[in-house]
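Quick start: load a record and inspect it. Here is Glycosyltransferase 2-like domain-containing protein:
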Amino acid sequence: MSLPRFIRRHRLTWKILTLLALAICGVYFYSRPGQKSTVVDDSTLRFRRERFERYQKLESSRTGPGENGQPVLLTGAEKEKADSLLEKEAFNIVASDKISLERSVKDVRDSRCHALTYPKELPKASVVIIFHNEAWSPLLRTAHSVVNRSPPEYLHEVILLDDFSDRAGLGQELSDYVAKTWPDGVVRVVRTKERSGLIRARLAGARAATGDVLIFLDSHCEAAPG
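Running the structure step on this input writes:
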């Protein structure tokens, strides 16, 4: 049985309005100032390529706690400290702090993934990492892994979006570390002026980004090879 005409007309009107709203949002998002990918000069790109290749050469020979994804086993006082902090941190912060910020990890992809090929011409990505009072080592290990394993011609920037943290070390110390470690500006810190929550913080990161596409990552993960 068909619906009455006024109901069909009402539903059609809402479909048109919805499509119109989506079109307006799309035009606004892609045309607003600052959303175009900024150009990276040749010398900066060359610097990033050399850094990327240097890490690739050294990764297979790295040694130390947690390298290549090996577990870190704690005993004695270290284990007691880790256990006491587990409830507060929700992970083993003592083991994390013993692992290098640039540690090697295994390639865990399915063997069939190795056969995939991708276009050489790809959009430049802005990787946005939202954090609030994240521990130092997992946050920085996330940033290092993205820079170290992302071909520089595709990685436009990494934005560490601080959602009003008040944890020690995440203020000026973090800004100084980022400026010293990545003097080319591939990683930068952006801060909210008040606690925003995950969704608003992501929107703030999107507004700050200047790459062609956006990638949002957790603040305690690692980019793997490939």
